[in-house]
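Quick one:
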Amino acid sequence: MTDLWISILNMSITASYVAVAVMLARVLLRRAPKIFSYMLWSAVMIRLILPVSFTSSFSILRLAGPAGSSGTGQLQFVPKNIGRQAQPALDTGTGSAGSLWNSLLPPVAPSASVNPVQVILWAGSMIWLTGVIVLLLYSVFSYMRVMRSVRTATILKGHVFETDQIMTPFVFGFLKPRIYIPAGMSEQELSHIMLHEQTHINRRDYLIKPLMFLLVILHWFNPLMWLSFALMSKDMEMSCDEAVIRKLGPQVKSSYSGSLLGFSTRRSGLMTGSPLAFGESSVKARIKHILAYRQPTSGSVAAFTLVLVILLIGCTANPKPVQRPSQQLYSGYTVDQLLENKTKYIGDASKVTALLGAMPLPQGLERAGLELTTGSRPYELTINYTVNDIKGMWNDELQALSREPLLHNSILLFSLIDNADIINYSLADEGITYSFTFAREEMDKLLGEDVRPYGADEAGLRKLIDRLESVKPTP
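Output:
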């Protein structure tokens, strides 16, 4: 349940950035037909449904995505292993907000049997699940209430039904959607209201809106998703209003607006998200939009379509990794990559992995992954290697040759990972495992000072690398 909760959080944070982008795009597209704004909300829906996506050079999330996830299928603002980190840390994509949240997360106490963040995650998942269940039950109750109110409706024609139990027209049903209208509607009202509701059916709005509402229920804790649902509903209704004006002509604007206003004054009280009610959403804004609406030219439609496609790609794509220029080596070390991945926490697996990749590989060894021990002090990093000696043997001479670069790499790691206490090496050779262990205290004593200040800048790191040439392992 905790893993599911973390996935929901990551999707919700990602969708929040996309929702903000869509809201800004709606301002830029305010002169475009509302169908374009309506279609933009599909990007938010995709982000709320799918935890993974494709990568592209053009992605709005390049500005906000977590650094360790660039180029991967899933953006992890909340790391999956955050409950096991000694100093839990989020990457919200915004420095100040991330620092604030990280300062509130409790570190692991050495004597504690359970990481406090694990307890917080479990409690959060239970609260989230309770909220989902309550909202789902309320939605089912609302749906059943609507169903009871139309069970006595009589057929008017085709899939149109009339009843005196409702006050405003709406579309209802998932498999076989029907249009329900109040009894006693005039022919003039009936013509354009029927066209409005039929547009909902033709576009499958009777499925899209409940789906979005279901996603909002899953992400009920995020106020941006409720706002997105409200704005999407507004864009959906306005785009249907535009379809009626295009079909019947601008001469119906006055009577159409009058019908909308009339039905809004006798709202049905049905829950938003259940039916598609004619007069239930942003009536004042819709009337103003109807009166000001002008049919766009084919050229402007083509331009708006191009903008829509670009925005949809930018909102649904994950950032593609930035191609780095060729990096200069200094005594075998990629200094700029080392500095870029300097970290306070040994639990930051992506940065620790990048640090190892910027260091020379000892002769005769191949990397075989790493392990992090972050539950309690001492915090340990275990680096696994397999022996790949061209002579087909692992002798004392080769052990000595490897021990020195492992020592040097360990000193650099201690300078770049602030809370690392112990670094272990495990070398597997045809069923035999050789182990080396380096402790921070020993390395500081060997160099006569704390090595962490060397990792503050490039000059210090180069100075430390130069000193390593004179540092030899003890027999």
